[in-house]
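It is worth pausing here to work through a concrete case rather than discussing structure prediction in the abstract. The textbook approach is simple: state the sequence, then state the predicted structure, then interpret. We follow exactly that order.
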Amino acid sequence: KPWLKHPAGGSPSFCCRVMAAADGRPQQPGAAVSFLDAVGQSIVNSASSIDAHIDAGALLERIAADTSPNARQSQRALSELKGLARKVPGAVVTAQGAVPTILRAVERLASAADEDIDCTEGLQDALETLGSLVGANDDQGDAETARRGAEVAELIIRHGDNGKQLLRLLSIRDISDRKS
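Step two, the predicted structure:
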């Protein structure tokens, strides 16, 4: 069978023979390799997404647990969460209670700032994180980003005391469906 000959000479690899047998038609070794590469990449992407989701959950727990007056632990966690939200916003959004936790941190940091405690960096990080979750900085404009952005905007309005004002502060038009 000429199609079973490996291009470099010799016999084709086991995966090439399996692919050819599974589908009943000749497969080139490159097709099997690219298929396996795609499967391998999908596994790596899934593992990275799971890791990001776990990291987001741990950071949100640190933010929620911080009760100190200067909120230093929250500020450090918000800085890390901002970086994670920029890379994989979907993993942060799907973490349990992400948006309400960030909004509570914004309220805590804003009230601490009223008491002359320096938390501008933490407050800025929290606002940038929310902006990333809504997709304010995303130029792709795909349907998934738009759907996620609308859901996050809705959560900001629902859980924030001044949700619509916060969206305006983030320079985000109200993309939620709710009229308040």
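Step three, interpretation. The longest helix spans residues 29-65. The two ends are 71 Å apart (CA to CA).
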